[in-house]
Amino acid sequence: MIFQDSPLFIAATLCIAVFFGIWLTRFPWGRTIGTPIWVILICALFANAGLIPSAMDGSPVYDGVFLYLAPLGIFIALLDVDLRSLKNAGIPILLMFGIGTIGTVVGVMVSWFLVRPEVAIGDLAGAVAGMYTGTYIGGSINFNAVALSYGINENGPLFAATTVVDNLIGTPWIIATLILPRYLQKLFPRKKLESAQNTEKRSEISYISMASLASILTLGFLAMVIAGVVKNYFPQVPEIITLTTIALILAQFPAVQQLHGKQTLGFFMIMIFLGVIGTLCDVSALSGVGELATTLILFVGLLVLIHGLFVFGIGALLKMDWDVIAVASQANVGGNTTALAAAESLNRPDLLIPGVLVGSLGNALGTYIGFVVAGML
Asked: Cα–Cα distance between 248 and 305 in angstroms, integer?
């Protein structure tokens, strides 16, 4: 189809996915799955059916979502937070993030000795293990940092294979972390954090006036400009940290608290972002990476499984809030962006700020630990 690569058609399809994701939750069986998961699944189906391209193939729309829409949605969602959430959720989520980090390293080591990826990959196997260590501690920034250092990005087939498998395993784990808390809470009830008590009854639909819309977008755009300026002068400061700081300050002002529609607008943008994540789950891309894909799928699949058993298992023993465990795991596997998306999707605005902080910590630690593992193996 000629129009499938049209930016307008792609944008329309992403919006349609959000519409149907919301519509399906009107049914009892659809509500048990939830809008975020439906959006990911619908967009994954569209991408694998060839209706729209995968985000791995590139598009101005996908680039715009990653560069502008996702950060803007995160900023708007953060305007709804309460400073008390950091006090109540900060230590628990930091603890679970640390446990998840250890689980990732253990998973890499166990997978290395069971799958023996060096047989299929060769001398660069240790570097690949370091890439996956980094990315499942703090997100894709660490993945690319290790890859660039070892020159894996110059090995086209290997870099393509590692990227495809990362997306194919990472996307289902996002879905898993959105599903597991709901069912685990039913089977093994856990007391939620005190900061969650006032967020349980948040309305899914709120109306927004033109004045509120203009105000919210103005604050968001200006905050992104400021974050970009700070990044230019202080490259070591991630833009998400600047956005978080500005949002946290603004959220304490009564005038900002009274703006209507922050949840609706921020949640919609995050749903679009999750839709793009869904397109990354492109099964057909495996055909282009050959037999190497089998080794990588086994290696990464076992790694993530061990990480999950580690973080959810120890979290269960500690009787930790299941939502906290899920957001901490997403901070490990996907970074602060997917951690924020998970917190918003689980209707836990009290975990937004803690999710940003541990996600940023993962960005800092992941690269170092990734290099250590690559050097050891």
From this structure: 35
